[in-house]
User: What shape does this take?
Amino acid sequence: MSKNSTLTILFADVSGSTKLFELRGNVAARDIIAAVLNALTEVAHRHGGKLIKTIGDEIMCTFPGAVQGLLASTDMQRRMKSDVAFVQDNIGIRIGLHHGEALVEENDVFGDAVNVAARMAAIAKRDQIVATASTSLKITNTAGVRVRSIGTARVAGKLLPIEIVDVMWQEDISHVTTVQRVVQFTKTQRVVLNLRFLDREFHIDELSDPFTLGREESHTLTIESDWVSRDHAMIEWKKGHFILTDRSTNGTWVKIGNEEFLVHRDVYPLRRSGTISLGQSHVAEGGNLLHFECGEA
Assistant: This one.
């Protein structure tokens, strides 16, 4: 039987698990990750949370309210840093959460809140907790939760970017603005990224859909070339910057001034102006370059 419910959805996963398998071997790494996920689940239960499922090196939990989810997320991070075994193995986790409408079906949860929470987890870096600003709106100082704004992020299915916050879990947070103040965001001049490829021009801003590049016709910019992957790269507004994400086989080269950087299965913030070469360095590519320039509208 399905029912709609307002819940806090939390995703937590082990950061750098691939490297852990390389360093420790399959059996030892699997045991370490299992121990981490068990510890995270215990913390969730202490705060009234429910484990929905384990997905590889990640867990998905639900909480009845935002306070429980936020407090659980901070305790999860602290648990990782206070457990001697986890510290010795250099274990880090990243967490994303959102409070909203979800569809509960037997032992699983679906819907908008799940998608948004998963996006928050994808944005979070090692040792970080990222939540939607709306999740923290009803939290008071007495809850002991502090956050700071980190801008906006786009979520699939959402017309506009949503405001996001960094949940501060470290013990020394005296310098961090309280929740009530941090959620008062100030609008600034709109930033635009101007792109030019051959005789085509594009203009994207913080409200634009992600700008995708690759050989397939479904992309914003299709580039027919043997060294360009079908789904090569993406440019989107995230955390106050235009971020280039490479998803290709051969990598993406970014040149700013006289310096060239290789981005391979990684992200790179685009600042000022420069050129982008897909699949080959600028020297090898020659003419088919994507020119970019950051400006204000």
Q: What stands out?
A: Helices lie at 17-24, 26-46, 66-82, 84-88, 112-123, 133-136, 179-182, 282-285.
